[in-house]
What does this fold into?
Amino acid sequence: MTGGTDRRIRIVVAKPGLDGHDVGAKVVVRALMEAGFEVIYTGLRQPPEAVTRIALEEDVDVIALSSMAGSHLPFCQKLKPLLEQAGLSDKLWIIGGNLPRQDHDALRSLGFKGIFPTGSKFDAIVTFIRENVQ
Amino acid sequence: MTNRPKSAPKSELRPVVNESGIEIKPLYTAEDVEQNGGFDFLGRPGEYPFVRGIHPLMYRHRPFTMRQYTGFGNPVQTNQRFKYLIANGQTGLNVAFDLPTQIGLDSDDPLAYGEVGRVGMAVDSLRDFEIAFDGIDLDKITVSLTVNGAAPQLIAMFLAMGEKRGYDAKALRGTAQNDILKEFIGRGTWIYPVKPSIKLVGDTIEFCAAAAPKYSPVSVCGYHIRESGANPVQEMAYAFCIARAYADEAIKRGLGIDEFAGRLSFNFNIFGSIFEQVCKFRAARGLWAKIMKEQYGAKDPGSMWMRMIAGGGGGGLTFEQPEVNIVRGAYYALISALSGAQTMALCCFDEAYTIPSEYAQRISLRTMQLLIEEMGLADTVDPLAGSYYVETLTNQMRQKMEDTMAEVDRQGGIVKLVEDGAVQSQVSAQAYAMQKDIESGKFHKVGVNCYRVNEEEEHEVQMHPYSEADTQMQIDSLNRIRGERDNAKVTAALARLASDARAERNVMPAIMDAVKSYASVGEITRELAGVYGRYQEPIRF
It folds into this structure.
């Protein structure tokens, strides 16, 4: 964690691609805020470049994506090199939403340490972030 | 691993409050009906206030239309699925478009990367409509287009395709969802800012009233507002506020209420308690009739009808134990039939995972057919009428809907509340509260927080394959059309469109011209966005 020990963990919650299903993203934002994190919600339709820029500008510790419409793999394939080029490789990348089990390994190899498919509990997400932010 | 929900000790009665906040008694009698407005606002089916149904004989005359939400990949594949469903007894079509199409991007737009044909059928030009509906008799099968931001283009493509095939636009039936205000609350396929978006809805209503008077240009949706966290009362109240906003826009253009209100339709959700849902629909039917008659001075009974598709139920289905969704779907279909819906559709059991398989679609279709063929749901109109419970709750729900609408008006009206992000924030706070109640076990969800099974016991769902080759086929086809069409004609049509938009004229005639010259969805959107700008989402928590 940068910026001293009293700094609160900063998280960007992004809606990647064109998917408009934001119920999940918004409830997770509320849960993360209630857990004491500082949360920046991007709103809908963020291309990989925008997610990278916002993560950089907001100096976040965690980059969290919420994907419901099935385009998570092509999106993350584009996002990974951009985050790396921006020097955000050491941040915690996590993703939640409609993520079929068969895609989890691919997401992990793309750098997503936390994968939270439909049915994940708020507590699991919060605990994972607390334990994994460096 | 089965974990039963805790029940209260026998000595105390578990209090029950429905999702709309109404306390539910263990027993209702004639006295409850009397104390809650009695039977004064009931009437007979087919008569004002239409609580019991908009037609005197309802399903005995004609059963509900069955219209599964379908579309994926390119128009060739979707056409095949349409024909499969029709061959299996489906009586209407409800087209799912991919996200690029819905937000006005061509399939080769960089922003469409990875999304072409994924959650619906890709459409770039009129050619795609010609392919998608090839061999489908538009006199026999009505088509509902689930599109909002790009609705003007797609309505125009549908009408142009019909004309090309020799149908008279004046007789062509069908529906477009085209309810942009709810897209700002949930679903999210907006393009332009709020005000010009409403203007475009007004354009389609005005245009269709003259050019395609049997076509329903708008289906106002409570459905997605409910999915976003609204309770059943709010679902109806917000939808009615939105419907009034469109009606006001049409009236502003000089249309009389009876010239267009009969073609307004609605799209509502069906998950939740059976009785709360049925009473919601009965209550709303009466309330809409009252609004049209008393506030808008409608004279034609057709203008007072709350014609609806009541279906889906996606928000009630679960990722866990997906096969149990088949049973939920059966109860939801029952709700829809008991509520007198004109059209029904069911989310499929595998839909929390993937594009539904043919198998899953057929199960949903059979579920609805069972109600008609075996269960007697098409035999008698409004069979729950007269129940002390149902009539009491119907009156209570209507009162709550009226209160909620009055509250919206007090706060400045639905358009302002949507522009400010206030409705979005409210329903999202409720979604969060509900999710917390599910996680704490306060709100029971079978398979989710009670009666769970181990992961190994979970039913494996077949995933729909996404094909890069089909995407490439769509892009190749778009490029071919760009090469073959008369590009001078396209340029002229687009220039006229921009000029009509700037002059605040109705843009539908120009869009008709543009689509007939095979201008693409993306090209038309760019012209309009050049004039109207693009929506900036207010972020509020």
User: Anything to note?
Assistant: Residues 388-410 of chain B form the longest helix (23 residues). The mean pLDDT of chain B is 96.
